[in-house]
Write a structure and sequence with these properties.
The chain has 2 domains: 116 residues; 108 residues, no CATH class. Strands 1, 4, 5, 6, 16, 17, 18 and 19 form an 8-stranded antiparallel β-sheet that branches. The protein has a 4-stranded antiparallel β-sheet with strand order 8-9-14-13, with no helix packed on it. By secondary structure, the protein is mostly beta strands. The mean pLDDT is 78. The protein is 3% helix and 52% strand. It is elongated, with a radius of gyration of 31 Å. It is built from 1 helix and 19 strands. Strand 2 and strand 3 form a beta hairpin. The longest helix has 8 residues.
Amino acid sequence: MEDFYGIKELYDVDLRLTKPIDICGRHYDVNESILKFNTAELANLNEIKNTVQARGGYHNNPLIDWETDKEINFAITNGVLSPISWSLLSNSKADNYDVKSICYCERLKTIEDDEYCYVDLKFLPNYCGCLIGVQGNPDNEPLPMGRRPELPLKPLPPKKDKFFFIYNEDNGKRIEDFKIINNRVYFATSYRNIYVDYTTDYKGSIKTINIGERLFNNYLHLTGKMTSKNERTGEVSTVLIEIPKIKISSSLSIRLGKNYEESVISDFFFTGYPDENTRREKQLVCKISFLDKELTGDYL
């Protein structure tokens, strides 16, 4: 910053609500900050204007010019995301859960005793075997003697989030004959190496983002600060930026791999629109205020 003059860095960027909302079981009120960037690695701000001219008369000269600020495109490049940031980035709902069925795979060597061959799984499987349940009466058959008829018990369809498969890793064949007690699996036939593909119930504080289920269709309010250094006096001051009406226009784009040396980078794209609650000649898209002092002193 010592050799730089002008506006350099964007920090303390807040996205604030224009309407209340609930995210992950927490209620946010109007003007409450829902997402904050302490510093932006990169920031880009582009204004889009619409200019129209009315021509006429001799040589078709321009008579009237209309200049309208249509919108402003704003982009911030930031680092690793929190769950709420992921939710806002994709405009998807986020919920809290206490239990989540997750898949887990293990390669194990069996243990032999006098009667059984068995293995001990790392987690307790949620395998329930073949479930038997009462079937419905969709045809509304008449009830004999005014009582509900005894409907036969039939196997219920398996749940997609609960499964249990065992394979003999030596020949790749699936093993059907086994018995489960807690997290121990017994086999009637002796095996050496097995592969277990199963699900277990994880219990804890779980945040789930439902991509495609919209979080909200409201507008947000953006505020931020920039550091400015005067080229003549060298004095440092703070510049405030405000965009009263923005929409998040980002899409999820994730790049993962062992060859990436840096953390996952997220690009947030916003579109600012004129405030329609004011008169047309006073509608603004963005407001930039130059203070005569520096507020924090932390970003020099």
